[in-house]
Write a structure and sequence with these properties.
31% of the residues lie in helices and 5% in strands. By secondary structure, it is mostly helical. A hairpin with a 5-residue loop joins strand 1 and strand 2.
Length: 487
């Protein structure tokens, strides 16, 4: 990816003690797992005045205290989503599951985003990270080359247009411009007529070789036979041939073309373009993974806490979240995110990304790949926490398979990063095969630099007991708004 983003575009401890023991010994926490890239980030918003916090603490009863804290941090029920017509929803649903959008004709959006479970596939007990789709790699399923993993964890699809989002992707490379329009890696070549930030985002997985495009003929060990992917890198510099090829495949399919035309009845079929495909995909996701009026879990409590109460453990965990644990400094507002980027010193696994993929050791430098500012090294966006219970594995690279592990990383990020061991802690790509991994034993200088740059507020741990960690996880498990339900 080009370094400059143009306007208008798109475990162990050193003494060998077990990880479980280290988890038990960890002394402090900030938030939760898909508190992933944020909870105590260096440029997090200032905490409310001590007097306001003290007023919430003084309320009679935990329910009243939590209600006070949610008001203080502007955590409100989600707004009503934009209306999506039946025709647009149906067209988007079919496109989402169609392989016509991929360069190989074998992968789809659905390959990484299941049509359930908050839009991500659930992981097995082994905590598997996502391997590349076989059709993108070439070769037989048992080929050792097929153990390569994707560079980043698939984002959930919950409520993507609610809560005034400012950017998309872990590094925010697709973003809203202050004066309108979008900043994306495609620059001036981004098509017009996109209805939303989510629609702009939908165009870029089509350009990613590891996601939906695949590799050009003769690449990937000479096994690829993907003519659509026979384009120059970086693909974003000249994306139109890829988008045109995808559009031709869609319009050649009588079912897909008819449904896309029905979604845009004011346009002649010959006038339909890739932007209409993107709008349909965004419309489907907006309606499918939204339940702003749902009344279970914490969202129900926000709407009417007397009618839809949460458990005592979740109440205690909620108070920790907004007070002692400090999570709300980054996870606030209707989507429980500040939309900012923070370095949490996440252990480096996977093939790396951008410039980091070509360095030794391989790394993912996060937001830096977009801004080229040293302050953004290893920083990733604060994710929304709605449905966090369903979106394992956590962090931008899927390094942890449970909320508790990720919460405990926030307890002492520097210690966790430095004591992470590839031999014992790295997740699996396939049973018995670990993801590519770098730890502080093999990349001491790199880890020293990453931890030196850790978000300022992560440098002072917050001590929580094991029972408090359990309560915090109980609260996180209540951050549900019904997005797993079929509309």
């Amino acid at each position: 990816m080009s370094g400059d983003v143009q306007r208008g575009r798109w475990r162990w401890l050193e003494d060998g003690s077990p990880f479980a023991l280290r988890l038990a010994l960890a002394a402090c926490t900030a938030c939760t797992a898909l508190l992933v890239s944020a909870c105590m980030g260096g440029d997090a918003a200032e905490s409310p005045a001590d007097s306001k916090v003290a007023a919430c603490r003084a309320k009679a009863g935990q329910d009243e205290q939590l209600a006070c804290f949610t008001a203080l941090y502007e955590v409100t029920p989600l707004e009503t989503p934009p209306a999506v017509s039946d025709a647009l929803f149906t067209a988007g649903q079919d496109l989402f599951t169609s392989t016509k959008l991929s360069g190989t004709g074998n992968a789809s959006c659905n390959s990484c985003h299941a049509n359930n479970n908050a839009g991500v596939e659930s992981r097995s007990a082994e905590g598997l990270v996502r391997p590349l789709h076989i059709s993108l790699r070439g070769g037989a399923p048992d080929d050792p080359a097929n153990t390569a993993s994707l560079h980043r964890n698939a984002n959930d699809l919950v409520n993507k247009l609610l809560g005034n989002p400012r950017s998309m992707f872990w590094d925010g490379r697709v973003a809203l411009e202050d004066g309108g329009g979008y900043t994306t890696p495609a620059g001036a070549k981004l098509p017009g007529g996109l209805d939303s930030l989510l629609a702009a985002q939908a165009l870029f997985p089509l350009l990613a070789r590891e996601e939906m495009l695949g590799f050009a003929i003769g690449s990937n060990g000479g096994k690829s036979e993907n003519t659509s992917a026979n384009v120059a890198d970086p693909v974003e510099a000249d994306p139109q041939p890829v988008w045109d090829a995808a559009m031709q495949r869609v319009m050649a399919d009588p079912v897909l073309s008819a449904k896309l035309a029905a979604a845009f009845p004011a346009l002649a079929p010959a006038s339909l373009g890739i932007q209409h495909v993107a709008n349909a995909l965004a419309g489907f996701q907006t309606r499918r993974w939204n339940a702003a009026s749902f009344v279970s879990g914490f969202h129900g409590w926000l709407r009417d806490r007397s009618r839809w109460p949460i458990s005592e453990a979740a109440l205690r965990g909620g108070l920790l979240f907004f007070d002692k644990a400090g999570c709300a400094r980054c996870h606030s507002g209707p989507r429980l995110t500040d939309w900012k980027f923070h370095n949490l010193a996440v252990p480096q696994i996977g093939p790396g990304f951008g410039t980091g993929a070509n360095e030794t050791p391989k790394s993912d430098k996060g937001r830096y790949e977009v801004t080229r500012q040293d302050a953004d090294l290893y920083a990733f966006v604060t994710p929304s926490l709605w449905e966090v219970r369903a979106t394992a594995p956590y962090f931008h690279n899927g390094v942890y398979d449970s909320l508790e592990k990720t919460v405990r990383h926030h307890l002492d990020a520097t210690t966790y990063a430095q004591s992470f061991r590839c031999a014992s802690d790295a997740p699996l790509v396939q049973p018995g095969i670990q993801v590519a991994c770098r730890d502080s034993l093999g990349a001491a200088a790199f880890y020293a630099d990453m931890t030196k740059r850790v978000a300022e507020e992560m440098k002072t741990p917050i001590a929580l007991s094991d029972s408090e960690v359990a309560d915090l996880v109980a609260f996180l498990n209540q951050l549900a708004n019904g997005s797993n339900n079929t509309p």
